[in-house]
Amino acid sequence: MDLEQRNIIPHHTPVVGYRWWDSHIEYYFCRPSNIKMIGLGDVMDLHEYVWMNRLRKDSVNMQQAFCIIPSDGFYNVRRVYANYYSHVDSVTNIQTCRVNEPAHNFYVYHLWGWKGNMPMEQ
Predict the structure, then answer these.
(1) Which of 1, 28, 90, 119 has the most other CB atoms within 10 Å of its CB?
(2) What is the DSSP letter of 14?
(3) Count of domains in the chain?
(4) Residue 3: inside a domain, yes or no?
(5) How many other C-beta atoms lie within 10 A of the C-beta of residue 120?
(6) Cβ partners under 8 Å of residue 62, min gap 6
(7) Does any domain span residue 7?
(8) SS3 4
(9) How far apart are CA 118 and CA 95, in angstroms?
(10) CA distance 23 to 41
(11) Does some domain include residue 1?
């Protein structure tokens, strides 16, 4: 049972990233949970997410979103998504372990107050 079926997150809530290399978040977090990834950022940094936004925009509800950031790629989420969402809250920290030792952290943020600025190809 995925996160939407257990009512942990509303149906069609996307995960967002602001650069093309956030695709590892899509691969490891989104795809196994059947969650769409949307690119929100400068067109030159989004690469394929610019045209993927066009394909995915009608299958997501952008009123809120989640953002997952690896600890080695930490950035100011409020500043990066200020053009897209009016509110950002920290939700949780996901810690991965290797050989029973902490190996990596992922920070999860909840964004809401969609401003309607979807980056797409012209």
Answers:
(1) 119
(2) P
(3) 1
(4) no
(5) 15
(6) 14, 38, 114, 116, 118
(7) no
(8) coil
(9) 31
(10) 14
(11) no
* Chain position carrying tokens 């009016």: 86
Distances, alpha carbon 108 to alpha carbons 33, 90, 99, 121, 122, in Å: 15, 6, 24, 28, 31
CA-CA distance, 66 to 102, in Å (whole number)? 23
Q: Are 119 and 43 in contact (CB under 8 A)?
A: yes
Residue 75: predicted pLDDT:
86
| In-domain check, residue 8 | no
Q: Which domain holds residue 73?
A: 15-114
| pTM for this model (two decimals) | 0.87
Alpha helices, DSSP H only, in 37-112?
43-46, 48-56, 77-80
Strand segments (E) across 29-100? 37-39, 64-70, 85-98
Pairing outcome for strands 64-70 and 101-114 = antiparallel
Residue 56's identity, in one-letter code, is: R
Contacts of 12 (CB under 8 A, 6+ apart): 4, 36, 59, 60, 61
* Residue 39 near residue 119 (C-beta atoms within 8 A): yes
